[in-house]
Structures are given as structure tokens and as C-alpha cells.
Amino acid sequence: MNAAIRAVVRASIYYNLEIFGIYKGYDGLISGNIEQLFVRSVSNILSRGGTFLLSARSQEFRTKEGREKAYENFKKFDLDALVVIGGDGSFTGADIFSEEFDVPVIGIPGTIDNDLAGTDFTIGFDTACNTATEAIDKIRDTASSHERLFFVEVMGRDAGFIAVNSAIGGGAVAMIVPEHSWSIDQLIARLRKGAANQKASNIVIIAEGCQLGNAYAVADQVKEKLDYFDIRVTVLGHLQRGGSPTTMDRVLASRLGVAAIEGLRDGKSKVMVGVVNNHIAYTHIHEAIKTEKRLDPEEFRVAKILSI
Ligand code: F6P
Q1: Shortest CA distance to 51 belongs to which of 88, 29, 23?
Q2: DSSP 8-state symbol, 83
Q3: Rg for the chain, CA atoms, rounded
Q4: pLDDT for position 199
């Protein structure tokens, strides 16, 4: 997100616009925690994860009174438009605010979950996948040396994008994602097949929102039916949400930040800027939130072929 903020600030100044940073998300708009940013305000942040503007899940902005206070500050600071970096919740707030007070808004997709339509990738997704894959590589050393079966839980809320990518990238024997119903028996059949094939190490990726329960629950169910594996569980958790962003993420964030300002200059509002087939694309914010972004069946096919 820092890379996106840097791009928004510098693109604004490039186009002779004044730009203000709002601290702590919508809470900062409500309390007036706002200050002007300059070219050097965003020096040396490109390589840092997170956001120097801080972030918050604002409860007050969910209320009409909260949004009225936010609009007071919007006028007080003489703002013309709002650039919102975030996911589902942030965009829903932006959409309502724009509707209620006729304020131009543009969204930049910033979530590790990659669950927004209108963009092939969201900011943070690539970094999260790289962190997960690196962790899986390390776990594999124990999995191989001790011939153990590992269940590794990755984030993604209700979406399996991180799971699919890290499963392919990390060479997992199977992955279980919220979008597909897979039974314990199907998983066991896959594991038995691997064992019959002298598979040296077994790593199963569990997406946190999967229907069979979390990684511990899945491990327990497998243990009941398959006693010859020594089983361990690792939950990667918030490791996936931090750290220095990959080059892919920095480039994506930089492109989207510039395109957000250029979109606003062109009079666009209530859109999310994304990258589709490597081109900048603007999608109505409703569509970005409401359209279900599907996992690519091709990736499932590849993962299955390679897991033998
Ligand atoms: O939406 C991003 C995400 O990291 C999800 O993958 C995860 O379920 C959630 O946020 C974690 O939220 P929190 O930091 O509030 O526990």
C-alpha cells in the first residue's frame, strides 16, 4: 500500500494537484486527522510493507452520523475527490459516501486476498504468495527428512487465490479452498495414491475459509482415518500480510496509483482501477465488489497433474 500511496502523491504533484493524506482510514476523515503531503513525504517507503498512513476498520463510518462528520472535514480541507486503497469494506464505504454526498471516489485494490473483480491482481497478493511459498519450502525440509504430512493454513478470507498459488508454487500434494467442496475421503484417496507412489513428502494447503474447517480440524479428520502418517500443522497467519513487497507488487501499486489520479483528472468516479490482461482498466465499484471472482480451473488442472 505504501507504494500505491507514493504513486498517488507523486502523480498528483506531477499534474500540479495538491494532495492530502488521511491517517487511519475513514476514522481519520471523521476526526480530521489529515495533512498535506509533498514529494518528499513519500521518500523511502516503496520497500516497506503496510501503510505509513495507518489503517483502521472504522465502525463510525458505518453510521450516517459518522459519514456526515467525515463530509464536514472533506469540505473543511477543501478536498475534491477521495482515493481509497483497500478491499471490499473500504469500497463499500466509498460507494455509500460518494452516493450520499456526491463526492468523486476512485478505488485502488489493496488486499492480499485477490478477491476483487475488475483486476487480475490486487496489491499485496503477490507478496503474500511469495511469503507462503517460501514458508512451504522451509516446511518441506522437515516434511521430507521426517517423512511427515503437513497441513499448512494460508489466509484469503473466503477466497482460495493464495492457497492455489502457493500450492502450485510450493509443490503441494493437495489444496482445499472455500470455492470447491472436497471431502476428507477425496483428500485421503489423494494421499494414499501419493504414498503408493513413494511420495517423499506431503504438504496439503488449507485455505482459511475452507468448508472442512481450519487446518487443525482437517488434520484431526485425516488422522482418524489414516494412521500411518506423522501429522503436523502450521498456520502462517499474519506473516503473509507484511514484509517488503515483491517487485510485481511495487510495479502494480505504482501503475494503479498513477492511473487513479489520471482517472480522476478524466472525470471518472465510483470506479476501481485495476490491471486486466496487463492493461489499466476501470470497473464500476459495485461490479468490483459484487461480481464473484472465480478461481482459474486451469490452475486446478495443473496442480492435479503435478501432484502425482
Ligand atoms: O482480508 C485480508 C485478510 O488478511 C484475510 O486474508 C484475513 O482473513 C483477514 O484479513 C485477517 O484480518 P485481521 O487482521 O483483522 O485478523
Answers
A1: 23
A2: E
A3: 22
A4: 85
